[in-house]
Amino acid sequence: MDRPQLTAKKEILVETDGPVGLITLNRPEALNALNHGLMEQLVEALEDFEAAPPIRSIIIAGSERAFAAGADIKEMDQATVAQMSADPHLTRWDRVGKCAKPTIAAVSGFALGGGCELAMACDLIVASETAVFGQPEILIGVIPGAGGTQRLTRAIGKARAMELVLTGRRFTAREALSRGLVNRVVPVESFLSEAKKLAHEIAAKPPIAVKAARDAINKALDVDIDTGLTFERQHFYSLFDTQDQKEGMKAFIEKREPKFVGK
C-alpha cells in the first residue's frame, strides 16, 4: 500500500491512501457547517479523484465531534426566493450523489440537515456509536433542500421519513442502522479506519463491474422491475467484453486470486 499523502485547503483536507481518496471536512469551529466554500472545494476534490485512474473509491469524513452540523444558516437567513433559486449551492449535493466512483461517508457526531443529506448522497455510510442524524429544517421554517425528503424516504420508507422530517427529531446511529440508513455502527475510535477498510475492499474489486453494479442498484430506485431487470441484464452482458471478466473467471477456475486491471 502506498504511503498516505496529505494536502490541505482552507475548508477541507485531501488525502490519498493507495487506491482510496479521503476528503475530510475541516471547519471545526463551525462543526463543519457546509458553507459555499466548503462544498465548492468538496466537489472540486471529488472531481479530482474521479479523474485519477489510481483512485477507485472515495471517503468523505468529518471529525469525531461532527460530520457536518448542517448548512451554514448565516449564508441564507436573509435570502430571497430569487437569490436561492439562482444559487448553485444545493446542486453540489447532487454532484456528490452522481460521483462516478464508490463513495463512503464516515460519520461521527452530528450529521444534521445538509450533513445528513451529504451522508445520504454517498453510496455507503459507516457511523460511529456517537453519530446523530436528523433533518431539523422544519424547526427553522423550511424543509430539506439538498435531497433529504427524497433520499431519506427511499432509505427508510414514507412513514418514518414523514415523522422525522415533520418533527425535526434527531435519531441515533443504532436507529439509523435498524432502519437501513447506515451500513454499520462501530466504536468512535474506529469509525474512520472501518470506513477505510471498506473502501479498500471495494477498491480491490474490478472497477468496471463495480460501476455497472452501482448503476444497476441506483436504477432500481427509479424504475419498475421489468425495466430494472432489462437494465441489469444489459450491464451483465456488457462486462463480457472486459479483461477483468476473463481474468476473474479464469482465476476462479484456477483457484487463485484475480488481478484486476480496470479494462
Textual characterization of the structure:
- By secondary structure, this protein is an alpha/beta fold.
- The protein has 2 domains: 5-203, Alpha-Beta Complex (2-enoyl-CoA Hydratase, Chain A, domain 1), CATH 3.90.226.10; 207-254, Orthogonal Bundle (Lyase 2-enoyl-coa Hydratase, Chain  A, domain 2), CATH 1.10.12.
- It has helices at 36-50, 81-86, 91-97, 114-121, 148-156, 158-167, 173-178, 191-203, 207-220, 225-238, 243-254; strands spanning 5-8, 12-17, 20-25, 57-61, 66-68, 103-107, 110-112, 124-128, 132-134, 171-172, 184-186.
- The model has no long low-confidence stretch (mean pLDDT 94).
The helix/strand series, from N terminus to C terminus, equals EEEHEEHHEEHEEHHEHEHHHH
Looking at the overall shape, the CATH architecture of the largest domain is Alpha-Beta Complex
Question: Stretches where pLDDT falls below 50 for ≥5 residues?
Answer: none
Q: Which sheet architecture does the biggest sheet show? A: 7 strands, mixed
What is the count of distinct domains?
2
Helix fraction bin: 40-55%
Structural class: alpha/beta
Number of strands: 11
- Principal-axis shape: globular
What fold name stands as the CATH topology of the largest domain?
2-enoyl-CoA Hydratase, Chain A, domain 1
Order of strands, main sheet, comes to: 1-2-3-4-6-8-11
What's the CATH class label of the largest domain?
Alpha Beta
How far from one another are the termini? 21 Å
Provide mean pLDDT, rounded.
Answer: 94
Number of helices: 11
